Amino acid sequence: MDAPSYLVGQFLLAMPGIGDPRFEKAVVAMCVHDEAGALGIGLGELVPRLRLHDLLAQLDIPAGEAPNAPIHHGGPVEPQRGFILHTPDWGGQDSIEVAGRWVLSATLDVLRAIAEGKGPSRWVVALGYAGWGPGQLDAEMQRHGWFVTDGSDALLYDEDVETRWAAAFRGAGVDPRLLAAHSGTA
User: Fold this and answer.
1) What is the pLDDT of residues 67-123, one digit of tens each?
2) What domains lie within the chain, and their CATH numbers?
3) Where are the transmembrane segments (predicted)?
4) Do 177 and 142 form a contact (C-beta atoms < 8 A)?
5) How many angstroms separate the CA atoms of 152 and 158, rounded?
6) What is the C-alpha to C-alpha distance for residues 163 and 129, in angstroms, rounded to an integer?
7) CA angle at residue 40 from 175 to 123, to 5 degrees?
8) CB–CB of 114/66 below 8 Å?
């Protein structure tokens, strides 16, 4: 399958043997991809010992109605910066609509709205992001390492982090048990 020229609104799945332990079994929701570079939010790993109520307390936001949800490790870039991927039924200051599928918000107003019970109906929280400079992701797509899939809302919002990577491959019709860690040459 040829990768689309721009991957906004799709998921990148790390292939076995990607060569970077930070992306082992990574599932990355692509939010920006154009000639200037790319940005995605990782959904394949949780931040240990940190949950939403801890994060809200650090930001002096009362937890209110917010569930004590896990926090995803969004990627190695700016790991102290928070991002919320959510349904398009809520939009706030500087929210970015992503291919009509979800919205990316990175300001405190979305956390306050979630705590007040007035936020988006479905959401995930991440710290950090995966970023690529101009042409970098395009070059990576030409080598063994990433698989692209449309994924689903269920993959984003419902799937457990431990099973998300395998479920994403299965959803694309690929049995992850049959994937090889090395690409061949002909």
Assistant:
1) 999 999 999 999 999 999 999 999 888 899 999 999 999 999 999 999 999 999 999
2) 11-178 (3.40.1740.10)
3) none
4) no
5) 10
6) 20
7) 85
8) yes
Predicted TM-score (pTM) of this structure: 0.91
Do the Cβ atoms of 13 and 165 come closer than 8 Å?
Answer: yes
CA 17 to chain CA centroid, nearest Å:
20
Conformational region of residue 141, where left means phi above 0, alpha means psi within -120 to 50, and beta covers everything else: alpha
- Quick one: CA torsion of 72, 77, 79, 85, rounded to 10 degrees? -40
All residues at 6 or more sequence positions from 185 whose CB lies less than 8 Å from its CB, including other chains: none
Residue type, 180: A
Strand partners for 130: 40
